[in-house]
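Next comes one such specimen:
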Amino acid sequence: MLYLSKETVANKRLQINGVSSLVTDRVGVFDEAMRCKNWQAWKNSREISWCIIKGGKCMIKREVLMPVELVEEISQIVHKEGYRALTEAFPNTDVKPPIFLSNEEAEALISLAIIEKEKAGLMYPYYDDEHPRYSEEHEERFDDIQMGIYEKTIYYVESAFKKGQFDHLI
């Protein structure tokens, strides 16, 4: 695992296995990253910005800062539903922030939020005050999910990744 410091990202260049790679933007995307093998660990736990995982291919992970309550709620859902696409980011039910996500994991997390909102629509179908069978209780419960896990998850993930990167999912 290779950790990049904020200083390395700020310098915009990085040497990996003798290959000089350009850090093309603040989030640490490397033009030569897919050629790299055998990552050397460089750690400074106080300055971790991004994490590249060793595992057959180079993968860039971004730090996503979320409130503890949201991380705990997501962890519970991941393990209850058995969402394997997110078990590396949420390895157990008591994960604490920050969370490191690859692009694929970020998409999976957005999908999880969408699924939770869709489930709320099925469980509380009378949330719309224009529906003939409108229920205030349904509206409150639906809004708890929509303004909770759905909107917060999307906000925090998009804050760490490029704005609009996941618009095709939403």
